[in-house]
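assembly run, all chains below
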Amino acid sequence: MLNNLRSSFQKILMYPSAIAGISVILFLVVVAIYTMITIPYNEAITLWRGGEEVWYQNPKFAQPAWINYFSTKKYAESFAVDTANAEMQKTVIPGEGGVSTIEMVHEFEFESDVYPQDLILYFDSAFQAKQPFVSIELITPDERTVRIANFVLTGSDYTYRFSQDDKLRTKLRTEDVILALFSMPDSEVPLKGTYKLVMIGSVFEPESTIDAEFVFHGQVFGLAGTDHARRDLTLPLLWGVPVALAFGLMAAIGTSVMTMIIAAIGTWYGGWVDELIQRITEINLVLPFFALLIMIGTFYSRSIWVILSATILLSIFTGGILGFRAVFLQVKQSMYIEAAKAYGASNMRIIFKYLIPRMIPLLIPGLVQSVPAFVFLEASLAVIGLGDPVLPTWGKIIQDANSNGALYKGYYYWVLEPAALLIITGLAFAVLGFALDRIFNPRLRDA
Amino acid sequence: MSAITQSPVEEQVVKKPFLNSSFIRILRYSAVRILTLFVTVVIGIYLTIVIANMGGYVDVIMRGEIRDRVTQMIINNQAYQQMDNETRQQLIQERIAAEEKRVGLDVPIAVRNFRYLKNALVLDLGRSINMTSDSGSKQVRLILLERLPPTLLLMATSQLFLFFSSIFIALNLSRNYGNFWDKLIIALSPSSAVPPWFYGIFLILIFAAGFKILPFGGMVDAPPPPNKFDYALNVLKHLILPGFSLVISAFFLSVYNYRTFFLIYSSEDYVDMARAKGLHAKDIERRYILRPTLPNIITNFALLIITLWTGALFTETVFLWPGLGRTLFQAIGQYDTPIIVGSTIIYAYLLAMTVFILNFVYALVDPRVKIGE
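ok done. output:
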């Protein structure tokens, strides 16, 4: 028996598609383990549910940065620099009577064909009674000095957004501040080169300080881009791997093993047990599977574990039970079962030691083939808004994208990234299951 | 399906039985079958109701909703502005009690479940909480019946197309298996692991967002074309993408399955015999291969329909197709319980009808199956 199984598995090597499937699955498992170690569950959830305070450094709806390699138009990459950790140059020039000048300068390259989304300054200052004063200038590559703003830091935290400044808008005589700042005067062509942001702060107390963070919201971000809530999409894409694998595998194993055990018990005992199982199967056939799952999701809990259990429960009594039953009925007549009965083996022993092991060749291909359906089920439920409320998953990304009109507005990356991962995962299992089916059921191979 | 008895043609009946007796037999069989299916549906619907109402969670939602509505109504009503606070509170409580009694929240949950079961079985599905039909009615039955035709249109066109095209192609493949197209179909058959709505997203991306030749979704343009012919053309145009995504998702696996069936059956001895006799290839296919595989084909087809009945929900949602599935999706969003339970019941009925019709079709195509024996 075991040798049979082993030789069957060795035959897998004859199917290149199966090897590809296995490699992809192994790779996904490695990614899943890596993800769960580097971004622990709790951290992932805090990040995923975090709002502006976590993700303020990222632009909204930004495409992934590698788009620049394929696009003829170059998009500006986002960055953030802070004086507090010396990413931005800061010099303090002490003056008389506690008055000192703080000069903060940052030079950056702008080589894109598309304007950035926004420029934001976050000031963090300390003072007793006299509020510090800041003036900001931008020196463009063609040596023009544009005076941006002068203002008093009224609180210890102060935020200045370039695009929201009405005074600057009037001064530059423009509708779009960012466009005006990053173009040649009176043109709408982006001016490429080195820009220099200069902030001169004045403090009027000896202990008073200013720190600033300069956030540049470009049009592209990171490996995967961002969504409507500025969240980095690599987080849900990575966390989607363990969730999809866990849901798909657990549902597939739970369903097929339970189905097999129940079919075995039914056929072994026969009589009313068998009859009951068949009646339940018939009732289950009439129950609308998705509608029930949706009700459970709406009324009770959207937790992935509840949905998983409901999925398994509703999938046990389906057509599969009839298939197993047909084979069990044949196996039941075999000589070795007669022998087991003769030596007085208990019912349970016969079911679990003699009947079920015979079914493993039938079980494994079906199990592997049913994984994609469950992976996609989780995504489907998430897409109609019944995903787990806390977990970042692939389906959730597609749902967010869909509800924000990603396809209409042209944010294709937002849909394509999770979709690609779903397809790769689904196809890996489907291809492997297909090969296993042909190995374990050789009748199909010749045909 | 278990009630079908597969009896091989053993006893050659010398005298043809009276038409009468076989008619009675079919009648009796139908009665028994309808009865068992009815019991099945009753149990199924009861389970649905229990799940929908277990723990009285739905009641909590409904109570809260009633309280909100009544309080708002009385506070905003000019006529009650002069009333002092205490009388007004009392009035609110009275109105809430009356409203709860009207909805039926005052009887115990077990009784309510049975009452709801009875109503559900006669398709008296109650009134929706928020949603209305296009004609403005709040009757759940009317809302759902109004949405049934689009679902039927979408399912019928796509499934019939799928069924006939895949059988036709499978027959062709089985005739010369091992060639390039055959291998291509085998290689592509794992693609059916991907659900229709997923293909839908890609189709929208390519044909609606990319080439801009087909609409993103919906069933007709707004405003709809005035004359009937243009209207039909317009609906057809909207039907292409959702229909195609339903077909493409099942196509390759279905061709592969049928092809395997045909290959197994075409290696039977009687087919070789027919070939040896020099029969026409077309005749062999039709009479010796297609005929005995028909019951299997029909089972496959019926199971496909059963899964797709409920599965089209996601496709309809992605394509904004105004069918049952999308209504259910909207109802979820608005916590419109009567609609959710109502559509579950409609689905249960549709599934039961599919199973029932299947039994008769079986007997029609397979002479070995005799109804009611």
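The domain at 73-217 of chain A is CATH 2.60.120 (Jelly Rolls).

The CA atoms of residues 88 and 397 of chain A lie 34 Å apart.

not gonna interpret more than that til we talk
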